[in-house]
Specification:
Layout (H helix, E strand, L loop, with lengths): L1 E4 L9 H15 L9 E6 L12 E4 L2 H4 L8 E4 L12 E6 L11 H15 L4 E4 L2 H10 L6 E4 L22 E5 L21 E5 L5 H13 L6 E5 L3 H10 L2 E4 L8 H7 L5 E4 L4 H5 L4 E3 L5 H16 L5 H9 L3 H16 L1
Parallel strand pairs: 1-2, 1-4, 2-3, 4-5, 5-6, 6-7, 8-9, 8-11, 9-10, 11-12, 12-13
Length: 348
Amino acid sequence: MIFFDCERLKHPNTGLYHYCLNLANAMARQADRLKNRELCVYVHDDKRYLLDSAVKVKKVRGWERALLYDSRIELWHTATQLSRYQPFNGRKVVTVHDLNFLYEPLTEAQKKRRLEIVKKNLRSCSAIVAISEFTKSDILKHLDTCDTQIEVIYNGCNRYEGEITEPLGKPEGRFIFAVGTILPKKNFHVLPALLVGNDYRLIIAGIYDSPEYVRQIMDQARRFGVGDRVSVPGPVSEGEKHWYLQHCDAFLHPSIAEGFGLPVIEAMQYGKPVFISNHTSLPEVGGDFAYYFNHDFDPEAMRKEFTDGMNDFVSGGKKPEDIIRHAESFSWDTAARQYIELYNRILY
């Protein structure tokens, strides 16, 4: 039996949540591709309802008791490089989303501890999956993989089929939008400078992982005299997030540490002009269909890049239908097929 670790479904409004949810559902739709094996998803008991009914689930209440000694495990897929849950038996696939901690303002001791967790997870695994070529290059640069196979499998575009929900604090007038966990590596504090000389509002939605960083964002807004036009509402529902994506004038993702960048293609599926940094994996995901901040986030240069990009978009330089087509090229069904093919190669 093949087991896919979806423990991170317990953290909503995160990239790993969407990764586990969408990949598990997509693999269940293609279960007939598995050669005489069942795919079972490990998930906490109170998160079963999130998955499609076709997904075979092993409900977990006590991780240490429930999964580490399961004799049925032939292949275990660890969903993240920093997982602390590993079985004692069966072959193993590990998905590495990023080594972003190496680019964050952490102490060398903190970076070393996290790198040791990744090294432990990759030890004796049958295959490593990187979610971008950038992540693969980081793995090869910083880790000794002992010639273990490394395969790049891109994430899919998150398609939302639920109800689009108008937020209670709906912005009046034109607005630009950003979403993600509110952390320094997301670099959101550079965005208020874009509001100088126009009437846009800026909405930055996401989990408050760092209240100090939220204050830094608002300090920057006040510095540029636009504090009344910047809002950081915290986490929003999927329905509200997709309302913002549908109605925003542009989407912004200036992150300096990404393994993939799911919000970028989420916005692109609505044909929106997307402005991103040129760091880590983002140019790989945005390609020729995004606009870029190329001058180390100098406020004046960013304003020019944003204004020039919006003018280019309005004049048809980047067409919404081409942007949508690019987003649709990232498919969870394609990712599921590639994972299943990898499982089959390992087991046969």
